[in-house]
Amino acid sequence: MSATSSVLERVASAVDNLVDVDPSRLAESEAMVGLHRQLERLAAVTTRAVAAFDAAKAWEPDGARSAPAWLTTRCAMPATTARRRVRLGRALR
Fold it and tell me: How many of the other CB atoms lie within 10 Å of CB of 86?
């Protein structure tokens, strides 16, 4: 198992734990701030990874025309969201 797989498995496990929590237990101001802070941190990591994926043209072997096209197809992401994420990643690079 690669180090990346291990990290992603730990993230998935943490999210699974959150999914199992009754939403009413998270309906307080500190939990809201904490959840949104973590959501934005994960979005930032994802955007940096998308930038690296785009720069490496890791989408080409699958026959995609572009990184946004690959994300749209493989991640079931709306095309506008995929284009925005790649554009932001490029700007950050």
Answer: 22
Query: Residue 16: which region, alpha, beta or left (left: phi > 0; alpha: psi -120 to 50)?
Result: alpha
Residue with tokens 């506008």: 80
Take residue 21 and report the two structure tokens written for it: 């929590």
pTM: 0.87
pLDDT digits (tens, 9 = 90+) for 7-37: 999 999 999 999 999 999 999 999 999 999 9
Cβ pair 26, 17 in contact under 8 A: no
Q: Which pLDDT tens digit goes with each residue over 57-78?
A: 999 999 999 999 999 999 999 9
Question: 69 burial class (0-12, 13-18, 19+ CB within 10 angstroms)?
Answer: middle
